[in-house]
From TrEMBL:
It is an enzyme of class 1 (oxidoreductase). It comes from Methylobacterium gnaphalii. This is Dihydrolipoyl dehydrogenase. Residues 5-330 form the FAD/NAD(P)-binding domain. Binds 1 FAD per subunit. GO terms for molecular function: dihydrolipoyl dehydrogenase (NADH) activity; flavin adenine dinucleotide binding. Keywords: Disulfide bond, FAD, Flavoprotein, NAD, Nucleotide-binding, Oxidoreductase, Redox-active center. Disulfide bonds join 43-48. Its cofactor is FAD. FAD binds at residues 52, 116, 145-147, 315, 321-324. One of its GO terms (cellular component) is cytoplasm. Its EC number is 1.8.1.4.
Length: 468
């Protein structure tokens, strides 16, 4: 392999590998450096893909356990083979990581396995596990090193009793009692997996609501739905300590505002209080790349750091820590480096929680619009009034569209419901084209589909929904 490149990307998560492929498509001589044995980063190895595989399998188990009989299907009591389910999950991971390896080869991208360190302007040193060493020359360097689990002071993650998402995806048996710290997206997705498989799940959350950052009404409804499913919540509470003993963990919980502490027992404790940017070992101090006050690599609107020729994308910079955001930044940056005008519209990045029902949102929340004193109209439509949802027996949830009061432009859409993650795509496209609620309302939607609830919510913005 040559050691002189137009572009060297450090990290092959969704940000890094996509950036490398787009750069190679545009004719840049490109190499990637990855310290994991497989490509695909957090997302493919220990994030999006394994979690979705377990969500899919555990939902099928739940269906067979509790809902098949309602559909007239008698299968008896289904038995869980957790080892097989974990193998199913791993099959999905392997298929995806091998796919990335294939794509890198297909695009003639050189892949170096080892830890990358920026040794100076235009130089990346790669140290492989066996101690081997490569020095790469690069006209441009992209930092795409992603993020790591945020730790709770004094609570040591052993990935057995006290686990991060990585350990929670690998549990060898279903815990009797799982205590989740943090009612964010990881807590609720992985809490759902283990509840469906038979664990008693309690979620302790510092704030007074679940899914902070998402629309408030969505959070409230969604919490009710999860409570109905059997997940218990302890809101406005903080975990101040976890003691691991012979028979699991004893967790000390206090009211967030202060007050009397109580202790809760659990077999497994999942720490899911957020993620932090990962820059360890990159040598950023040596080359003088600036970080912001939250440890993220600071970039301008073209992903350039303060050091000429060094760029950064994905979880390691500001913005939502989402795979599709990282990918789009990868494409935009590759295009910028090739002299084109790459761009990401941060106002239209969908956010999906893959529970059942799913939660999906794009654009502004009602709380944000109120804070900015933006005048808006709301159109809401419940799935109880949607023909297909009724036929399928999946009537939990609603679609809510927020549109500008003067122009009718769609400002935000929030959905709780089966398949919400797919439903949100049409409004993301509509918003990219600056659509009004009227535009969505006048678009013919196939019957009977769940998408009709989106159309009806758009009609409801003008108070003329048909089916409610
Ligand atoms: P990463 O995917 O973290 O990749 C960074 C890569 O860089 C890693 O492979 C790492 O090994 C490598 N690296 C780091 N330092 C070095 C170095 N010095 N040298 C060489 N290599 C290095 N997002 C979604 O959009 N949808 C989801 O459903 C979703 N589910 C998730 C579920 C879980 C449990 C978790 C933890 C995250 C989930 N995410 C999801 C978030 C998503 O995984 C991240 O937003 C995404 O992976 C970020 O991509 P990235 O390329 O910036 O970094
Ligand atoms: P999160 O930021 O979504 O949620 C963390 C939660 O923990 C918040 O509700 C916060 O208030 C709470 N919290 C913080 N400190 C606490 C404490 N001491 N005690 C109790 N609660 C506390 O973070 P999470 O769930 O860890 O996920 C990390 C990131 O991974 C997400 O922000 C998201 O970007 C990404 N992700 C995306 C997924 C998706 O798109 N479906 C799935 C999983 C992860």
């Amino acid at each position: 392999m040559s050691s002189s490149y137009d572009l060297v990307v450090i990290g092959t998560g969704p940000g890094g590998y996509v950036c490398a492929i787009r750069a190679a498509q545009l004719g840049l001589k490109t190499a990637v450096v990855e310290k994991r044995a497989t490509h695909g980063g957090t997302c493919l190895n220990v994030g999006c893909i394994p979690s979705k595989a377990l969500l899919h399998a555990s939902e099928a188990f739940e269906e067979a356990n509790h809902h098949f009989a309602d559909l007239g299907i008698q299968v008896g009591t289904p038995k869980l083979d957790l080892a097989k389910m974990q193998a199913f999950k791993q099959g999905g991971v392997d298929g995806n990581t091998k796919g990335v390896e294939f794509l890198l080869k297909k695009n003639k991208i050189d892949a170096y396995h080892g830890t990358g360190r920026i040794a100076g302007a235009g130089r990346v040193e790669v140290v492989s596990k066996d101690g081997g060493n490569h020095l790469l020359e690069a006209k441009n360097i992209v930092i795409a090193t992603g993020s790591d689990v945020a730790r709770l002071p004094g609570v040591e993650i052993d990935e057995k009793v006290i686990v991060s998402s990585t350990g929670a995806l690998e549990l060898p048996k279903v815990p009797k009692k799982l205590l989740v710290i943090g009612a964010g997206v990881i807590g609720l997705e992985l809490g759902s997996v283990w509840r469906r498989l038979g664990a008693e799940v309690i979620v302790v959350e510092y704030l007074d609501r679940v899914l902070p950052g998402m629309d408030g009404e969505v959070g409230k409804q969604f919490q009710k739905i999860l409570t109905k499913q059997g997940i218990a919540f302890k809101l406005s509470s903080k975990v101040t300590g976890v003691e691991v003993g012979k028979s699991g963990a004893t967790v000390t919980v206090e009211p967030a505002a202060g007050g009397e502490a109580e202790t809760l027992k659990a077999d497994v404790v999942l720490v899911a209080i957020g993620r932090v940017p990962y820059t360890q070992g990159l040598g950023l101090e040596t080359v003088g790349v600036q970080l912001d006050n939250r440890g993220r690599v600071q970039t301008d609107s073209h992903y350039a750091t303060n050091v000429t020729g060094i760029y950064a994308i994905g979880d390691v910079i500001a913005g939502p820590m989402l795979a599709h955001k990282a990918e789009d930044e990868g494409v935009a940056l590759a295009e910028i480096l090739a002299g084109q005008s790459g761009h990401v519209n941060y106002g239209v990045i969908p956010n999906v929680v893959y529970t059942f029902p799913e939660v999906a949102s794009v654009g502004r929340t009602e709380e944000e619009l109120k804070k900015d004193a933006t005048a808006y109209n709301v159109g809401k439509f419940p799935f109880t009034a949607n023909g297909r949802a009724k036929a399928n027996g999946t009537t939990d949830g609603f679609v809510k569209i927020l549109a500008d009061a003067q122009t009718d432009k769609v400002l935000g859409v929030h959905i709780v419901g089966a398949d919400a993650g797919n439903l949100i795509a049409e409004v993301a496209v509509a918003m990219e084209f600056s659509a009004s609620a009227e535009d969505i309302a006048r678009t013919c939607h196939a019957h009977p589909t769940l998408t009709e609830a989106v159309k009806e919510a758009a009609l409801a913005v003008d108070k003329r929904a048909i089916h409610i």
